[in-house]
Design brief:
The chain is mainly alpha-helical and about 140 residues long. Strands 1-3-2 form a 3-stranded antiparallel sheet. The longest helix is centred in the C-terminal third of the chain and has 23 residues. Helix content is about 70%, strand content about 10%. The protein has one domain: Arc Repressor Mutant, subunit A (Orthogonal Bundle). α2 packs across α4 and α3 packs across α4. The protein contains 6 helices and 3 strands. The chain is globular, with a radius of gyration of 18 Å.
Length: about 140
């Protein structure tokens, strides 16, 4: 059910978001860099479970779009640190606000019992995710 809900939300976002949509890989990298500004390509690849050369290709694409910038390491010039541009930060914030507005409207249509059940299910999913990561 979650993938279906996510697809419906993404379709709605595509209709309402005034900027061209990014492919999933680019969006995942951009969100990661927003959360971890200064991350290296290698660390981003590890976090996204991708090969560094594939992440490098995404970095090049996002840089060309003006959404990401590479800053050379002061000590090791072979290493680049990734940072979102101000345009990227604005668009990510705009997308987040739009998504939250859609989800808020949807959640308000649920009964109290449905909201309680959803809260319990979310709590269980968080616990399951924590256990999964602690098993690594």
């Amino acid at each position: 059910m979650l993938p279906t809900l996510n697809r419906a939300l993404e379709r709605r976002m595509a209709l309402d978001f005034p900027h061209p949509p990014l492919p999933e890989g680019q969006l995942a990298l951009l969100r990661l860099v927003e959360e971890h500004a200064g991350i290296t390509v290698r660390d981003a690849a590890d976090a996204l479970l991708m090969k560094p050369n594939n992440v490098s290709a995404l970095v090049a694409q996002l840089t060309e779009l003006g959404l990401l910038e590479r800053r050379r390491d002061a000590v090791d010039k072979r290493v680049a640190h990734l940072h979102p541009t101000s345009v990227a930060m604005e668009r990510l914030a705009e997308a987040r606000a739009l998504k939250e507005a859609h989800m808020t409207r949807l959640l308000e249509t649920l009964t109290d019992g449905e909201q309680d059940a959803l809260g319990s299910a979310c709590g269980a999913l968080v616990a399951l995710t924590r256990r999964f990561h602690s098993a690594d």
